[in-house]
Amino acid sequence: VDVGFEGVMEGLVSDVSVEWQKRICMVVRKCSEHVVLNEIARLYKEFPVENCCPALCSDGEGHFALHWAALRGSVVILCALLSTANDSQNVKTSMTDVQCGNCSCGHFQQTPLMWASSRASSESFLMIILKLLSSGANPYLTDSKGCSAFIHAAQNGNVLAMHALKVTVDGAQSFSSEIPLEHMTDHFNRSALHWSAFSGHLGAATYCVRICKLSLSATDSKHYTPLYRAVQNDKPVLVHALAYLHVETHTPIDYSMLSNTNQIKNSRA
Q1: Other CB atoms within 10 A of residue 54 CB
Q2: Considering only Cβ atoms within 10 Å of each terminal Cβ, which end of the chain, N or C, has fewer?
């Protein structure tokens, strides 16, 4: 019987007390790798192994230990948590796609892959992303705002994550979607290019245009182009770069939308 992810998750932590779940999340967030590994070992001494999965311990605020390991960037801790899935690939796949609950901090439905992708470009976070993907994480999942891991990476200028996600999806046959990952938009039709332009990340915006071939003339739900978003958020470097890319790609600029710069800056996303 397929009980779905909720049933799998509940079963894997059914015997673990709330206090212990919070403790595991706390040490994963703040303590050394040695301490984390010792606490996982202690957890198994306290509770039955078959109903004890440290990766799915909750901090009581809608986040799980696997989220904190991904955000921290520790490959050792992430691998230790993933290895607690009783060697079942189905459980590992479900576990990597665990989504935040209805928390008050705006992370609803975000996955560990999204958290890792939102960090700065570095080798450690690249390894986290690759490990999650190889363990079955689904890059096509979106959060409550419609943002995929690729968009999270673009929002934070993590070009390494963007490239890792794109290459993994392009080279895999296990992902089926009518829309390429890099062409996905959020619930407001904002692409990764819109977000990188608005956030002021030159490398991410250039990657979106030159590698992913995202359209400079694409408009979001408010009919704003990436160039408009860069002007709106006062990102002069991005404005100059996007204007250059418009010329390079022979994409006309809609000057009618850029006629009143002050009005653009005063508008809200």
Answers
A1: 29
A2: N
The DSSP code sequence of 140-156 is T---TTS--HHHHHHHT
Closest Cα to residue 55, out of 28, 81, 86, 20?
81
pLDDT tens, residue by residue, 37-89: 999 999 888 887 666 788 889 999 989 999 999 999 999 999 999 887 654 45
Tally of CB atoms within 10 A around 231: 23
φ/ψ of 151, rounded to 5, equals -70, -40
Contact 112, 67 (CB under 8 A): yes
Nearest CA among 141, 208, 136 for reference residue 177: 141
Six-digit token pair at 209?
């245009």
For residue 168, give the nearest of 126, 119, 197, 122 by alpha carbon: 126
Helix (H, G, I), strand (E, B) or coil at 241: helix
Query: Using an 8 Å Cβ cutoff, are 226 and 253 in contact?
Result: no
Residue percentage of the chain with pLDDT more than 70: 83
Distance CA 99, CA 84 (A): 18
Q: 60-83 burial string, b = 16+ CB within 10 Å, else e? A: eebbbbbbbbbbbbbbebbebbbe
Instruction: Show contacts of 15-23: CB within 8 Å, 24+ apart.
Output: 15/47, 15/48, 15/51, 15/52, 16/43, 16/47, 16/51, 16/52, 16/57, 17/47, 18/60, 20/46, 20/47, 20/57, 21/57, 21/58, 21/59, 21/60, 22/57, 22/58, 22/59, 22/60
Neighbouring-strand partners of residue 64: 58
Q: DSSP string spanning 52-96?
A: --GGG-B-SSS-BHHHHHHHHT-HHHHHHHHTTSTT-HHHHHHHH
